[in-house]
Amino acid sequence: MIFQQLINGITLGGIYALIALGYTMVYGVLLMINFAHSEIFMAGAFFGFFLLISFSSIPFLQNNLFLQLLLAFLISMSLTGILGIIIERFAYRPLRKASRLTPLISAIGVSIFLQNLFMLVVSPQAKPFPEIFPVKNFQFGVLSVNSLQIFIITISILLMVVLNYFIKQTKLGTAIRATSSDVETAALMGINTNSVISLVFFIGAGLGGIAGILVGMYYGSIKYNMGFIYGIKAFTAAVLGGIGNIPGAMIGGYLLGVLESLGCAYISSAYKDVFAFIILILVLIIKPTGILGERVQEKC
Fold it and tell me: How confident is the prediction for the chain on average, in pLDDT?
């Protein structure tokens, strides 16, 4: 049974890690918590929902599930990425010189605005997410894995590998790491830090958007307020791994997913959403810097 819970945990953990990357990338550059990220994740789920509904009525795409999914991921990722850039440009950039509390309040305001906007536009009722492909179960002894879990695990790992390569092996990734180390010094070295920060928001929001689609596919329904609980869990994953540290967000996501699955199996599924809060409190008390995090020096 424990191996079955590990599979469930890794599936959930991949989703948490994708959302957590958005929190940790923004924190790594600006030292702020983008609380609107949870609503960007929710927006990604609805973008994917409407795209997949539209694709099902287009004859060319009706029998091509791979192309439907690919287009839904790419377009949703782009839309949520643009939404992230707009939020950064108008809600955070003007407050960059303000005290640490001011952009935090702005982020909460953006989160409330987006949640209420989507409630008015898509209705307060939960919407059934389209079933893209029939789910098949594979039995390996006592272990059962379905095709949707394999798909989610594969997509989440693939995206994290690509992100890791991008950050470590490309010039733009180097610019992101330099800006994360010191924004002003990076600017003096000729890096357009505003563009780099916008890129960070685009990537983080895009990954959150894809996570939204994966959640819709996994649980079969989406709702305008779904971002809150997933946002808290992803934030917990980022803190657990060491907020500001990209590998830490990945590790934290998987660890949280596994702990949550084990907690549901061996304690009670009624406390499914409580485990994240307990873990968050324990991490903040015992090791506030997380597993891979380091004590952050105040940026001048």
Answer: 90
